[in-house]
Amino acid sequence: MATVLFVYAHPDDESFGIAGTAMKLKDEGHTTGLLTLTRGDVGMWFGKEKGSWTPDELARERSKEWREATKVIGFDHCRLLEWPDGGLRDSPVERVTADVVELIRELRPDAVCTFGPEGAGSEHDDHRAASFFALRGFHRAGLPEEYPDRGPAHQPKRLFFNASPFVADFPVVAMTPTHTIDIKKYEERKKQAFECHKTQFKDRDRFNQMLERRGGKEFFHLAVDRSRAIGRAGDLFQ
Ligand SMILES: [Zn+2]
After folding, report:
1. Per-residue pLDDT tens for 42-66?
2. Ligand 1: distance of its center to the CA of 106 in Å?
3. How far is the CA of 102 from the centre of ligand 1 (A)?
4. Distance of CA 214 to CAs 11, 14, 22, Å?
5. CA-to-CA distance for 120 and 133, rounded, in angstroms?
6. In the chain, what are the domains?
7. Do 132 and 117 form a contact (C-beta atoms < 8 A)?
8. Residue 152 and which of 25, 97, 136, 214 are 20 to 30 A apart at CA?
9. Which residues are in the CB-under-5-Å shell of ion ligand 1?
């Protein structure tokens, strides 16, 4: 049995992209973990830019929603950090990487999944930053001389980016899928996971449209494979 760690930026990212895959892995007896880097404290609350809440109140509410969603999905391990929402890109690189490394060394996953470097469909700065930190942590977790105070080295074998098949006339830049997971059976529970994020119901239509467009599937792009040496001779078009 394997262990898979998912690394994302905001509470609700887990429900959009990979909830079905995480549910399926769990049902198959694998171990799943989620690392969310921010509490979503500058997001909208029920679609309003500003209201009577403070960023801290929103962070607390979204943390609760995140906990509920992670229970619906059934992650074995969850960690919610407090790096600033909207400011992940400008957060101290070594410290955020160290946090990713720490959880990789604790859970010792076989694979790590995160957003593609383009930041998924929304191309959000925090999504792009989450991808960078996950990739950076993925490689450094295996080097004992890096962050020696964050646990014994562990090198996961594979790193996947969220992916999306090319759709004509649909201007989303995303990775080409190398792996497609059938999550038809989990679609209702995936919806329930999103429904926990009540403050984010402005995105509910988008969530349901994405679910429909993906036709019961979630897509991944194998970006790093350290389980085998590659580098066959050939040209770029073979
Ligand atoms: Zn997000």
Report:
1. 876 766 666 667 888 899 999 999 9
2. 25
3. 22
4. 21, 16, 16
5. 15
6. 3-225 (3.40.50.10320)
7. yes
8. 25
9. 9-10, 13
